[in-house]
Amino acid sequence: MVELDPDKLRDVTGWENAPIHICMDADYRGLTFCCKPGYSLTFGFKCKRDETLKELGISQEEFIKIKEEFSKDNDWDSDLVCFGSISYCCMRRGGCPRRDPALEKRYPDKTKEEYMKIYYEKKKQLAKKILESVKDPQNKKKVRPYLDLF
């Protein structure tokens, strides 16, 4: 079993011991909170998405495909959020002026607590899909302990 750094985890409704962002030294599961490759970011200097994808042998194209297929399968496409999909949204527990209205629109019969729970449950599912996409046997060994957490 992998030892998780408690400073790099958050207990959010729907996902106990969720990882923080990759740019803040999260474990591999944190890729679920990364945005779309190919765009410059305000904090791009500390972004570790591309480095982490390369380390795991996941191409940017494959990462985009996984996130966009997940978005289609879960009706998460939205013109309200960055990159047109809730699958690219980050953790921001304190709220997001784009993500939260998109979730409210997607789940109109739910309270904020209920739709945030759905959000984090689905982000957890997406994290698993991303890690399951690792093909190289050496890299599979790197992600196996994190897959065991699901």
Feature tags:
150 residues, mainly alpha, two-stranded antiparallel ribbon, 5 helices, 2 strands, 41% helix
Give the SSE layout:
Layout: E1 9-12, E2 15-19, H1 49-56, H2 60-73, H3 99-106, H4 112-132, H5 137-147
Antiparallel strand pairs: 1-2
Describe it for me?
The chain is globular and about 45 Å long. It is mainly α and 150 residues long. The protein has helices spanning 49-56, 60-73, 99-106, 112-132, 137-147, and strands spanning 9-12, 15-19. Strand 1 and strand 2 (15-19) form a beta hairpin. It is built from 5 helices and 2 strands. The two termini are 12 Å apart. The protein has one domain (6-147). Helix content is 41%, strand content 6%. The chain has a two-stranded antiparallel ribbon with strand order 1-2.
- Write down the oligomeric state: single chain
Query: In order across it, which strands form the biggest sheet?
Result: 1-2
Beta percentage is: 5-15%
* Alpha-beta classification: mainly alpha
Please state the overall shape, judged from the principal axes of the Cα atoms. globular
What are the secondary-structure elements, in order, as H or E?
EEHHHHH
How can the largest sheet be summarized?
2 strands, antiparallel
What is the domain tally?
1
Number of strands: 2
Enumerate the spans where pLDDT stays under 50 for 5 or more consecutive residues: none
Summarize the structure.
By secondary structure, this protein is mainly alpha-helical. It has helices spanning 49-56, 60-73, 99-106, 112-132, 137-147, and strands at residues 9-12, 15-19.
